[in-house]
Amino acid sequence: MKLRAPVGEEIFDLKAGDIVYVCGEVLTARDKAHARIVEMLEKGIDLPFNLNRAVVYHCGPIISENKVIAAGPTTSDRMSSFVPKIVEKLDAVVFIGKGGFSGKAVEAMKGKAVYLAFTGGAGAFAASKIKNVKGVFWEDLGMAEAVWVLEVENFGPCIVAIDSKGKSIYDEVRKRIIERLRK
Q: Which of 7, 96, 149, 176 would be 57's cystine partner, CB 3.0–4.6 Å?
């Protein structure tokens, strides 16, 4: 399935295990950007970019002369603590990264967000799907931590790892492992 950003109600039809290719505008954000986003939201300060209906990619891209060289996913679980405060202010959002979320993040996503897993170690391949660097915010955080606005085409394949109902492929794998270990 193709998913065009900004996203709409169609994300609520996605089910854990579905394969998705993303087109349109994607924002990168890592730890420091998530912390700043939450700080600004808590203070009632407008963000310099729109997260509502956005696709947020957990990535610290390597960019040279306005061209993306590598853009592999980073581990999303580090951002789990920020997710509840971010999604409560939004109608819909898509997160892309590797490894999924834990704790209250999955519960907070219900009816608000989906999580797409992208293969780790595929930074050059991911970069090949980025057609344009549209802008950058918070350069004071450094290249990897700044929020980059990227135009992507057929970014994927991504797997719906956590759907908007809270179903997680990671939970399914854990259950199977536990069942097999008990045998």
A: 96
Alpha helices by DSSP H, listed for 66-151, are: 83-87, 104-109, 123-128
Question: Looking at the domain covering 2-182, what would its CATH class be?
Answer: alpha beta
Q: How confident is the model at residue 106 (pLDDT cuts 50, 70, 90)?
A: very high
Average pLDDT of the residues in 19-32: 98
Backbone phi, psi, residue 10, to 5°: -60, -25
Q: Looking at 34, 98, 112, 129, which residue is catalytic?
A: 34
Look up 58 and say whether it is catalytic. no
Residue 137 three-state SS:
strand
Domain residue ranges in the chain:
2-182
Quick one: pLDDT band at residue 180, thresholds 50, 70, 90?
Answer: confident
Asked if 11 and 54 touch (Cβ cutoff 8 Å), the reply is: no
